[in-house]
Each structure stands twice: as structure tokens, then as C-alpha cells.
Model the fold of this input.
Amino acid sequence: MSIFDIIGGAEQHPVYQELEASNRDRQYSFLESTVHAALASGKPHLTHDIVRALNYHAIAYLHVAPGQFRHMDVAVMKGKQVSYKPPKAFMIETLMGQMLSRVQNRWQALNAIS
Done:
């Protein structure tokens, strides 16, 4: 069970907001440590594990299954209309791998301005 469920799905609830801010601080700290480690090792990298850990730190206890790729299909609604359908759940890990591979391949060729 998550705090989202406990407070009735109200993300504006003060308890949710406070936990979200704490999670954001932990997520930033984790990301900062990851960047320092990558720079110190001279081998910048981004992996499935890092992405999942960033998600974990962002939504721990706020929602169920933090740090996991979603296992069900979702849609973004605008009113009662579907405004966007993200990729199917079974495609997420493969698509994430493709994106991470592109990042790795371009990391050395690009700089912060490119």
C-alpha cells in the first residue's frame, strides 16, 4: 500500500507533498553521487539500474512498485478523452534499452551545449 492509497489519491494532500519533497531530495542526492562516480571513474554511463533507482527515489512510498518498469498499459487523459497513449507495457524495457544505448553511443561525441 502507498501513501497515495492511504490518503485517497489526493496528491495535493500535505502528507503526500511532504513525502514527495523528501523523495526529491533523496533522488537528487543519488543522482549527484552517480554523476560524481561516473566522472571520477572517467567512464560516464547510464544503465537500467540507475534509471530504476532514480524512479525508486522519486516515488518510494508515494505509489506502488517504485523502481520498476510499469506492468500495465496506461493512457493520459484530458477530461474524458485519451490525449496520449504511451508505449505498451511489454515494450518498456526494450525501448528503455534502446534509449540508453543511444545515450551511451553519443555520450563521448556530444558536450553539454550540443
Remarks:
- The first strand starts at residue 76 and ends at 78.
- The first helix runs from residue 3 to 6.
- The chain has a mean pLDDT of 92.
